[in-house]
Design a protein that fits this description.
Blueprint: H1 6-19, H2 28-47, E1 48-49, E2 54-55, H3 74-78, H4 94-112, H5 117-133, H6 159-173, H7 180-200, H8 234-246, H9 249-267, H10 273-276, H11 281-297, H12 301-330, H13 341-344, H14 350-370, H15 378-389, H16 400-413, E3 430-432, E4 440-444, E5 452-459, E6 466-472, E7 477-484, E8 505-514, E9 520-527, E10 533-538, E11 549-552, E12 564-568, E13 573-581, E14 591-598, E15 606-612, E16 619-626, E17 633-639, E18 647-651, E19 662-663, E20 670-677, E21 683-689, E22 700-705, H17 707-711, E23 718-723, E24 735-738, E25 744-750, E26 760-766, H18 768-779
Parallel strand pairs: 3-23
Antiparallel strand pairs: 1-2, 4-26, 5-6, 6-7, 8-9, 9-10, 10-11, 12-13, 13-14, 14-15, 16-17, 17-18, 18-19, 20-21, 21-22, 22-23, 24-25, 25-26
Helix pairs in contact: 1-2, 2-16, 4-5, 4-6, 4-16, 6-7, 6-8, 6-11, 7-8, 8-9, 8-11, 9-12, 11-12, 11-14, 12-14, 12-15, 14-15, 14-16
Length: 780
């Protein structure tokens, strides 16, 4: 089996085209991207064995089909030749490599949204699973397996191998590339590792977790407690990962038993100069992986701060080494082939310097990119770029290739490199009407003390009466309600509402909803401090209103009231969506999109189900959009972790089941989408712009396109900057109405003035023929 991605095929086609156009100038980023695609292909065609699902340490022969001929034979493994670790045989670090490659594939998926990455991730996982099970010693992670002896292993491993495996599996578990069946298998591996540690890491064994045959490791590389500062975080990290994936209390207790001492040893590493001077670069990467996992899960503020300081320190140590490492790369023949390990006595001599220089450059960059990549220094970016450009990736013989690939895709993920066609930006034009004050009306003016926030609107059937409701302060209490009788040109004073409305809060959402008997009522949803959803309703089109009534109580809580509500089943029921926390997720802000149905016109809700769940991300604030033919519902969401673009999923059975979520284009990436159909059949969607590469970031914008653009994963037609936010963020929770004459009324809260006044509720009005003319003028 030879794995070759469609992405790479396209790249090759482009490369041949470029060759025919010698005048084409490529940026540094484009040159690196081309080389890294060759590196991706090389990894899968020269270093990877489909028999074992593993990647190996070095190549002794560049001839196609002979790259892995040098791996240990069955007879050599039988007698544990040349040593019990398999040092120097090209299969001593297969699990370190897998632990680097698995997060790399996840990063590549986040950047590209390429669904084929699921297949690649699973291939790597199968190799890890084999190394965890083939020997029959639970919790032991073999270094590798030879394609010439697929049932035999070297009996000694190391804490290094296990550290990378635990981190890689944890990342995979909480990624969108995994699935429920794979998660169960990951839980088993991580549980076995934790159980092995609990059983064997005891004083009687000198805290060694033991070899596969039950013997003590004589090299000290399997010792997990009473170790140096750069190794101390690993044992609690193993327990924390097992708890986080399985939820078992005993792993939680073991994590807490070791974490405080580990945090103290880690944070003091730099002070212990006798230790940190000789800590190898690969150990810095392993230390950082342990700290990142622990920091993500830690809730104690003091411990979390120590872990943060430790990660900053590790970044500093790695950065100090990068220049010398790249210098060594430049002074080596990077196409050098590995010598015959059997004759050379292992990975020895001058070649080892070449082998490790490439690996170390990737490790040092990847170490820094794992924590706070937004602060990756300019000099380190330049050094990484130089390191990535140096090798000939068709003739590279070292597993350092994997670390360079890992650093490249981590840097791509966090926008350190921006390339044409990246999904994180967009190419469609933007029309700007944010400066046209004549279109804008201040509905509720913010002051130095009063913050007017999070409005939503509803249009009555007469086509001109609009209600707007909002909260005081960010996610604050409800009670503010106004009405316009002329389509948003002018607005009433504050309408009288029950005093009890102030007992609920947080982004009130107003709808006009039918019950099964065809009776309509206005309904406003809000939450209380415990995360229950309450409704306030009017049976007389807004003349009078009820007190808050409990409408839905989630088993845990919800972060928002219903963000979107639509009729389903020919109006017999309603479908509503919001966001609720995911159990045991390492990110405190990480959530699931849940949906419920109502059979009484939205007064009460039941039949809760999770409809969109993208572990490792934070999908929230769903917007339901029915297709023009009525047969499909799209659910477009915010992506609050800022690790990727917004998400979309589809249902063709009135919300009973949903497709696997995928990322949308950068042009639609934003917060709290609200959509309506225009008279000509196009869609308009308004939201706070949060695309990663955009000239209107954090401002209030509109996207213009077609429903089919959502289905076919297209960018759309164009965008409109509606209002300018002087806050640099914190705007865009919108109302959106289309009047009978085609006038669009878009309402949001926004820091409207560049002074001390806080957010105001503002609406802007326009017609699409005006916008289309502006677009044409811009093109001309």
């Amino acid at each position: 089996m030879r794995i070759l991605s469609l992405y790479f095929i396209v790249f090759l086609a482009c490369s041949f085209t470029f060759a025919a156009e010698p005048s084409k100038e490529f940026s540094k980023e484009e040159k690196i991207a081309g080389k890294m695609e060759i590196g991706w292909k090389t990894a899968w065609t020269k270093f990877y064995s489909p028999k074992t699902h593993l990647f190996y340490d070095f190549i002794e022969d560049y001839r196609p089909g002979h790259e892995l001929d040098h791996l240990p034979t069955k007879e050599e493994l039988n007698r544990q030749y040349p040593n019990e670790c398999g040092y120097g045989t090209a299969m001593e670090d297969c699990m370190i490599s897998a632990g680097v490659l698995l997060p790399m594939v996840i990063d590549r998926y986040i950047v590209s949204a390429d669904e084929s990455m699921k297949k690649y991730a699973y291939e790597i996982f199968k190799g890890i699973e084999s190394c965890a099970t083939v020997h029959g010693s639970p919790g032991f992670i073999a270094r590798g397996i030879s394609p010439f002896a697929p049932n035999q292993v070297y009996v000694n491993t190391s804490r290094d191998q296990t550290t990378h495996v635990v981190y890689g599996l944890w990342e995979y578990y909480f990624s969108p590339l995994s699935n429920e069946a794979v998660k169960k298998r990951i839980e088993k591996i991580l549980s076995d590792i934790a159980d092995r540690m609990e059983k064997n890491v005891v004083p009687e064994n000198d805290y060694d977790f033991l070899c596969a045959d039950g013997s003590r490791c004589r090299r000290g590389i399997c010792k997990m407690y009473k170790v140096k500062g750069h190794e101390a975080a690993r044992l609690p990290m193993f327990y924390a990962a097992a708890w986080n994936t399985t939820g078992k209390q005993k792993y939680y207790d073991l994590w807490r038993k070791y974490i405080e001492e580990a945090a103290d040893l880690s944070v003091n590493l730099e002070k212990n100069t006798d230790v940190n001077r000789w800590v190898p670069s690969y150990a810095l990467l392993q230390m950082q992986t342990s700290l990142v996992l622990l920091h993500r899960l830690e809730r104690d503020p003091a411990l979390k701060d120590k872990l943060k300081k430790s990660m900053i320190m590790v970044n500093r140590l790695a950065a100090a080494r990068m220049k010398g490492t790249v210098h060594r790369m430049k002074n080596r023949d990077l196409t050098e082939i590995a010598p015959d390990w059997r004759k050379a006595g292992g990975l020895n001599g001058e070649y080892r310097k070449t082998w490790y220089a490439i690996r170390e450059a990737g490790e040092l960059a990847l170490t820094q990119l794992m924590y706070n990549p937004a602060q990756f220094p300019k000099d380190q970016i330049d050094l990484l770029s130089e390191a990535l450009l140096l090798p000939d990736y068709e003739k590279i013989s070292t597993c350092g290739l994997y670390d360079l690939l890992g650093a490249w895709w981590k840097a791509r993920r966090y926008l350190i490199y921006n390339l044409p066609g990246d999904r994180r930006g967009f190419s469609i034009p933007t029309v700007d009407i944010s400066g046209e004050k004549n279109r804008q009306t201040i509905i509720a003016e913010g002051t130095d003390q009063i913050y007017q926030g999070h409005p939503t609107t509803v249009l009555l059937p007469n086509g001109k009466t609009i209600f707007v409701v909002w909260s005081i302060n960010h996610a604050g209490y409800c009670g503010s309600l106004k009405r316009s009788d002329d389509g948003g040109l002018t607005w009433s004073g504050l309408l009288k509402t029950p005093e009890s409305w102030k007992n609920v809060k947080n982004c009130p959402a107003i709808y006009r909803l039918p019950d099964p008997n065809g009776k309509y009522r206005l309904v406003i949803y809000a939450t209380d401090k415990s995360g229950k959803i309450f409704c306030m309703y009017s049976n007389d089109e807004g003349k009078s209103w009820s007190d808050p009534v409990l409408s839905f109580a989630h088993p845990r809580w919800v972060h928002m009231p219903w963000c979107s509500v639509i009729p389903i089943d020919q109006g017999k029921r309603l479908l509503a969506g919001t966001v609720a926390p995911r159990p045991r997720d390492p990110d405190r802000i990480s959530d699931q999109i849940i949906a419920c149905t109502s059979t009484d016109g939205g007064l009460t809700w039941n039949d809760m189900k999770v409809i969109c769940d993208v572990p490792g991300f934070y999908a929230s604030e769903p917007c339901f959009i029915r297709s023009p033919n009525g047969k499909e519902i799209a659910c477009l969401t915010r992506e609050s972790s800022r690790r990727g673009n917004s998400w979309i999923t589809f249902s063709r059975d009135e919300g009973k089941s949903w497709s696997d979520p995928r990322q949308v284009r950068g042009s639609l990436t934003g917060d709290r989408h609200v959509a309506r159909y225009l008279p000509d059949g196009r869609l308009i969607i308004v939201f706070r712009d949060m695309a990663h590469i955009t000239p209107t970031k954090t401002h209030f914008i509109a996207w213009i396109g077609k429903y089919d653009d959502l289905v076919q994963d297209r960018e759309g037609e164009y965008r409109i900057k509606l209002l300018h936010s002087y806050a640099g963020w914190d705007c865009g929770y919108p109302g959106l109405e289309i009047l009978p004459d085609g006038t669009v009324v878009a309402t949001t809260y926004i820091k409207y003035w560049d002074d001390s006044r806080k957010q105001s509720v503002v609406c802007t009005r326009f017609k699409m023929d005006e916008m289309d003319k502006k677009l044409q003028a811009k093109k001309n």
